[in-house]
Write a structure and sequence with these properties.
heterotrimer; A alpha+beta (171); B alpha/beta (153); C alpha+beta (555); A: 171 residues; alpha+beta; elongated; C: 555 residues; Beta Polymerase, domain 2; five-stranded mixed β-sheet; three-stranded antiparallel β-sheet; 17 helices; 37% helix; disordered N terminus
Chain lengths: 171, 153, 555
């Protein structure tokens, strides 16, 4: 009879239940798990913050530090942050067991020191980012003058204009 | 922590159904949550825990509050998916509240104590991740995530 | 990259015929692409032109989109989209509503299927449609104030503290002989928050009212106000967790055709293979749910056992079981390597074998046959008038399929079987979906065979501003239509999504006519409703089998 052959099928297929959570489960390569920021490589440029669709990555400048905050609770595990990071500092790991009884445990914060403009004293970027730019230009054979380098974008524009003989009113 | 079997009630407050399909998946033989004592019940009055999905759309707020109030103490709420935990990709839309924390704000202003909550991030979380949350409720496994702060010296 | 604007032979002739007959109605026309015409119409002639398109040219109505074009100094516009399947073309009518007088003639008296689209435009923009038979709120929450229109450009997408009005009572109280059975919004049989209000008298259903759209999250406003072009595929995928990849593919296709971006062939094949895997997954899911509703839980468990392998396969290819995150404008992010290819072929063979065994059992069971054969019949004429799409249409003898009518991605180069049955009952809809699973397995095998080498992402991605375009894909439930207007600064100006269930739900009252209450769940489930759209059951008097409330007269 038709339906009783399903009993035979069930017996043939056997028990398919996984042993998890009593034994670990196998994950395929390329699985999109929890994102993690490599604190040594991150330069605080904010490319990941601009790209994240649900704003799980946020950036705040506070008391001379740039704070990059990754909130897994809102993360959609799309991996766009890893796609756009110029330093490959953020990547998706294989962790998926993210259960927590508080939202504060679902956070990774990275605080990076910022530099001040030598003209106006405003904090404008992270030390790491500035160092990276100087190194990159050095490898191209260009030595950057710290007088010009450590300025906020507004005052750097003034200097640039002066160097090529233009006047510019700074705000 | 719950020592005995957990009876769950599924509450969809406006999700896209991916998390709901994964919840149905843990009741099928591959992941079989019934090994851990989980049973799906039809009424919130019979439930121990609520499986909550969705970013709480504005249309559903009052109905969700009524359903949560109907669950007798002691009650737990498992916020499943990134929509329930933090509002997901809809967190700042005009049509949603933005996750269970915002809902608890409303409950507190009404004088109702919010239930004890377990958060399960993921979009959608794997069935094993939901099983991990249930096993955590029963005390079989320990929590793995912790808040990490790095400050550059 | 310039787009070719040469008219294809047929569509050029059609355009000429329309221009000849409606010289004063058409203010301006343009060929958006070689198979898409955009006509700017004088609103006084809208009704005549619509009826001409429907009855003389035999087009099919897709959807209507409202747009606030005041920043582009064009006031408000409404776009009505029609599909001319015979020519593989789209015809878009655009009418202007000046901001001083937001009134337009309604096309609902001629096309009952436009009722919801116009109610939605009224909710979001405040445009009144004269002659609309049922101008009530459709989408917005009950407590939303009546004079705040979310999709206008002066409303910010993240305004959370819109004041809450006390909800207006929209359901009627039962009369003396009636008893109200409320189902939902949280009910064990429902997965989504919807509310059915059934009035029962003497043990029979005499009236039913429905309030849906509990899942309204403001997708279109978020896309316009906040997200960049490459972030929208991720929100599109989360419109529906089951057929999300079709939505993100349709959006990417619309932007790519609007900008003339050439997507590399390998990326198109990868998209096609993933679309077919999603179709298999969705139909197996539906088959399990249908067995469960018929009372055959063993069948449900076996279907979902077969389906589990698709999820594992997708996880290997894309990194996630659902919401693949594979699409970006211009291509895909991940590739199908040789190992994955071998696994897909093995899976397709195994799945077909297992499904055949299961179907042998299902079709040999008298109970399943008697509960699905000649139940919930939708005749071909009714199906055509209601403009149903997808397996519901193909089970009633109408051969429409976006993969053939508006070919896209690799479907242009693959030949495949489109199953059509003519009985129109629940069994026919079941058989259409099962046959589609076998057809999808074949498409996947052919596509893997022909998978060309190459890049995964287009080289030049340059999106011009202010271009209107429309794209369609075949989701597991039917035809998906996305209408876009591109914007500036990496943001889209307008994005309108019409999911297939929107067109299929009005067919449910016709199928329920004269059936017993116990058959109602399987009949409703047989259209495979994705309740992100709403449902509306009109009143059926079970005794006489007549409609008690349906204001339309069908021609």
């Amino acid at each position: 009879m038709g339906r009783f052959s399903l009993l035979g099928k069930s017996r043939k297929v056997g028990v398919v239940t996984e042993k998890y959570p009593f034994k670990p489960t196998e994950l395929p390569e390329g699985f999109r798990g929890k994102p993690e920021i490599n604190v040594e490589k991150c330069i605080g440029c904010g490319a990941c913050v601009a790209e994240c669709p649900p704003n799980a990555l946020t950036m705040e400048d506070r008391d001379g530090y740039r704070v990059i905050r990754l909130f897994y609770g809102r993360c959609i595990f799309c991996g766009r942050c890893a796609d756009v990071c110029p330093e490959e500092a953020i990547s998706l790991t294989m962790e998926f067991e993210l259960t927590s009884d508080t939202l504060t445990d679902l956070v990774q914060e990275v605080k990076l020191k910022m530099v001040k403009c030598i003209v106006c004293g405003r904090y404008y970027g992270t030390e790491r980012h500035q160092r990276k730019i100087i190194e990159a230009m050095k490898s191209q054979g260009i030595e950057l003058d710290p007088e010009i380098m450590y300025r906020c974008p507004e005052h750097r524009a003034d200097t640039g204009a002066k160097l090529i003989g233009l006047r510019r009113e700074s705000k | 922590m719950i020592k005995k079997s957990i009876w769950v009630f599924h509450l969809n407050s406006g999700s896209c159904n991916a998390c709901d399909i994964e919840i149905l998946d843990i009741l099928t033989p591959f992941h079989d949550a019934e090994r851990l004592g989980v049973k799906l019940v039809g009424s919130p009055r019979h439930a121990d825990a609520i499986l909550f999905t969705g970013p709480v759309t504005r249309q559903n707020v009052d109905k969700v509050i009524e359903a949560i109030r109907a669950v007798p103490e002691p009650k737990y709420l498992l916020a499943i998916g990134s929509c329930a935990c933090g509002g997901g990709i809809w967190h700042d839309s005009f049509a949603t509240l933005g996750g269970v924390q915002k809902l608890y704000g409303i409950l507190k202003s009404m004088g109702i104590k919010p239930p004890k909550t377990i958060y399960v991030p993921g979009c959608p979380p794997r069935p094993e991740a939901i099983l991990h949350a249930i096993a955590y409720l029963k005390g079989i496994v320990t929590k793995k995530v912790k808040r990490t702060i790095f400050e550059e010296k | 990259m310039t787009r070719k604007l040469m008219a294809k032979q047929n569509i050029g002739k059609t355009l000429e015929v329309i221009l000849e007959n409606f010289r004063d109605a058409i203010l301006k026309y343009e060929m958006v692409a070689s198979n898409k015409i955009l006509l700017h119409v004088d609103s006084r002639h809208l009704k005549n032109l619509t009826e001409y398109l429907l009855y003389s040219l035999k087009t099919r109505y897709c959807t209507s989109a409202g747009v606030d074009e005041r920043p582009l100094s064009e006031d408000f516009k409404v776009y009505h989209i029609f599909s001319l399947d015979a020519d593989k073309a789209f015809i878009i009518l655009s009418v202007r509503a000046p901001s001083t007088l937001l009134k337009l003639p309604s096309i609902t008296p001629s096309i009952p299927g436009a009722e919801w689209a116009e109610r939605e435009i009224r909710d979001f923009f405040g445009i009144e449609f004269e002659g609309h038979p049922n101008p009530k709120r459709l989408v917005l929450p009950d407590d939303w104030p009546a004079d705040v229109f979310p999709l206008r450009k002066d409303f910010k997408y993240n305004l959370k503290d819109v004041p809450s009005k006390a909800p207006k009572r929209i359901f009627r109280a039962p009369s003396k002989s009636e008893y109200v059975v409320p189902i939902g919004p949280y009910h064990p049989a429902l997965h989504e928050p919807e509310y059915f209000r059934i009035y029962v008298s003497k043990g029979e259903i005499v009236d039913a009212e429905y309030r849906g759209f509990g899942v309204f999250r403001g997708i279109e406003k978020l896309a316009e106000g906040k997200l960049k072009y490459n972030q929208i595929p991720f929100i599109a995928e989360r419109i529906c967790g089951i057929c999300g990849f079709t939505h993100s593919s349709c959006y990417c296709q619309a932007v790519e055709t609007a900008s003339g971006i050439e997507v590399p062939e390998r990326a198109q094949y990868v998209r096609t293979i993933m679309l077919e895997l999603e179709r298999i997954h969705s139909h197996l899911l539906w088959l399990g749910v249908a067995c469960h509703l018929l009372g055959f839980d063993t069948g449900f468990m076996h279907c979902w056992r077969i389906r589990e392998r698709v999820m594992d396969l997708c996880e290997i290819i894309t990194g996630n079981r659902k919401t693949y995150g594979l699409n970006l404008v211009g291509g895909v992010r991940r590739d199908i390597n040789e190992k994955a290819k071998a696994k897909i072929i093995k899976f397709a063979e195994n799945m077909c074998k297992e499904l055949r065994e299961l179907m042998d059992v299902l079709l040999s069971m008298g109970e399943i046959i008697s509960r699905t054969k000649e139940i919930g019949v939708l005749g071909k004429k009714d199906a055509r008038k209601l403009c149903v799409v997808g397996p519901v249409a193909r089970a009633s003898g109408i051969k429409i399929d976006s993969r053939v009518d508006h070919p896209y991605f690799a479907y242009k180069e693959l030949s495949f079987n489109v199953p059509v049955y003519s009985e129109g009952d629940v069994l026919a809809r079941l058989m259409v979906r099962v046959d589609e699973i076998y057809a999808s397995a074949e498409i996947i095998e052919h596509a893997l065979d022909k998978l060309p080498k190459g890049d995964l992402m287009a080289e030049e991605i340059d999106i011009p501003a202010n271009v209107r375009d429309v794209a369609a894909t075949e989701a597991p439930r039917g035809e998906n239509v996305h209408f876009i207007i591109t914007g500036v600064e990496n943001r889209i100006y307008r994005w309108k999504v019409r999911a297939p269930t929107y067109n299929n739900l009005p067919a449910v009252p016709y199928m329920l006519r004269g059936e017993s209450l116990a058959d109602a769940p399987i009949i409703i489930a047989s259209i495979d409703p994705c309740f992100s759209c709403t449902d509306r059951i009109t009143v059926i008097d079970a005794e006489t089998g007549k409609f008690v409330s349906n204001p339309f007269k069908w021609r």
